[in-house]
Design a protein that fits this description.
22 helices; mainly alpha
């Protein structure tokens, strides 16, 4: 990002925070490694666990989330693939023509990104950024000045509601039989009708969207303010051409749409049977529903392979971190740290304040465990145990951790990495705007948890 930031940004109270983040915030992988060491030290300091026990608990736990790790990485992989299918990209190009003014553009990008994030977080992350680029390109062609960093911030801010929607890893894990949360739930499940699709959560999601959309309208550059437009040499993010040269009988098979259509139709049939026979929504069902949609939208196995290769580069770093989170959970479980932290939380919380305090604690933990799935592995059992001791409905504990995770994503750079790579910006370029999203969404989510706890 060039240094031509707006004067407003340079006078912003966020400038010290930007400088601190640039100098001191390491990679998300480093966070996971440091947290492992911190938890190991805490286990040996606060419990009667010796170094050998810590190493054994850590090693035994490393493989504890392998199935969950695959499920979460598939969500990101499939979301990226879906966002880059030709029909979706054509839809984004059409949507980019909708806003007729800069103010409308900022609000529109946020709303579209939020709706996409409610469908699946992997889709929301990519769609918001691609739409921001497409709008910036079309605005430049129409002579309409839009502030590109604010457009990108609006797209990324849509991610603030992802855990309230269809792909929320916490609620889906709690609804999945034999998940790692099952022991904390007494072997039972919490159906998504009590979490994701509860009236209070859907109203909270709507409230967050309304408040944040209003904030983007209010913080837009006014007439006379400097505006950083998309550079003239940068075009919209076009779909790369797929190499579909047909030279052999095998190529003809790979270029045929029949195979992907048949497989997609088969998955749709399975999903229909699953729900008709009383099946519930789980992480696996979410993944199969998006895979079915992708199979129906792509033109051939050639295109499917091409999209997979593009998406795979976004999964590697995240894939490596899940065993570390599982190891952390292993240390906390074997040493008794989970029970210790749970008792400490119970000592300061009441049934009424539990939800808000759990939100705040989850927001802090998210800085060190930026993956929603990894955070639930570490913090979910603690909060569920505390909720049980206080007599709080487990659905409140689940959504409080979910809210906290999505909340501080607005100032935690991990999930912004693919967004910033597509946009060609740095975290400091959008942080002032996403901090506003943090404030507005935090108020709404805390209010929802407080009211539902009354």
């Amino acid at each position: 990002m060039p240094t031509t930031q707006t004067r407003t940004e340079k006078r912003s109270v966020m400038r010290p925070v930007n400088r601190f983040l640039e100098r001191w915030v390491p990679s998300a992988l480093t966070f996971a490694i440091v947290l492992t060491l911190v938890v190991a030290v805490l286990a040996m300091t606060l419990t009667r666990t010796n170094p050998v026990d810590v190493v054994k608990g850590w090693g035994d736990g490393l493989a504890g989330l392998l199935a969950f790790m695959t499920q979460m990485c598939l969500i990101l992989l499939l979301g990226y693939m879906l966002a880059n299918t030709r029909p979706v990209r054509r839809l984004l190009a059409w949507l980019a023509r909708v806003p007729s003014s800069p103010a409308a553009a900022y609000v529109f990008v946020f709303i579209v990104a939020a709706l996409a994030s409610l469908i699946t977080w992997g889709l929301g992350l990519i769609v918001g950024t691609l739409l921001a680029r497409e709008i910036a390109v079309q605005a430049r062609e129409r002579g309409m000045k839009v502030h590109f960093p604010l457009l990108v911030a609006a797209g990324y801010s849509g991610f603030v509601v992802w855990h309230m929607g269809y792909s929320g890893s916490g609620p889906l894990t709690a609804a999945t039989p034999d998940s790692f949360l099952a022991p904390s739930l007494g072997g039972e499940v919490v159906p998504v009708s009590q979490t994701t699709f509860s009236t209070w959560n859907m109203l909270a999601a709507l409230g967050v969207m309304i408040v944040c959309a209003l904030l983007f309208f209010l913080i837009r550059p006014r007439e006379g303010d400097p505006v950083y437009e998309l550079p003239a040499q940068v075009g919209s993010e076009r779909v790369e051409e797929v190499d579909e040269r047909v030279e052999t009988p095998a190529d003809r098979i790979d270029a045929s749409r029949v195979l992907t259509l048949v497989l997609g139709a088969g998955l749709v049939a399975y999903l229909v049977v699953h729900f008709v026979q009383g099946g519930t929504l789980t992480l696996d069902i979410v993944n199969w529903s998006f895979l079915a949609l992708i199979l129906l939208l792509v033109r051939s196995p050639f295109e499917l392979i091409h999209l997979t290769k593009q998406a795979a580069s976004n999964v590697g770093e995240i894939l490596l971190q899940f065993p570390l989170y599982a190891g952390i959970l292993g240390i906390m479980t074997s040493s008794g740290l989970i029970q210790l932290f749970s008792d400490a939380f119970v000592s300061i919380a009441t049934p009424t304040t539990f939800g808000v305090l759990a939100l705040l604690s989850a927001g802090i933990v998210n800085f060190f465990v930026p993956s929603g799935g990894g955070q639930f592995a570490v913090q979910g059992p603690i909060m569920l145990d505390a909720a049980n001791q206080l007599g709080v409905d487990p659905s409140i504990a689940i959504m409080a951790v979910a809210y906290g995770d999505q909340w501080t994503n607005m100032i935690q750079p991990f999930w912004a990495l693919p967004v910033l790579a597509i946009a060609g910006l740095k975290m400091r370029d959008i942080l002032g705007y996403t901090f506003v999203t943090l404030l507005g969404s935090g108020v709404v989510m805390a209010a929802a948890l407080f009211l539902v706890s009354l």
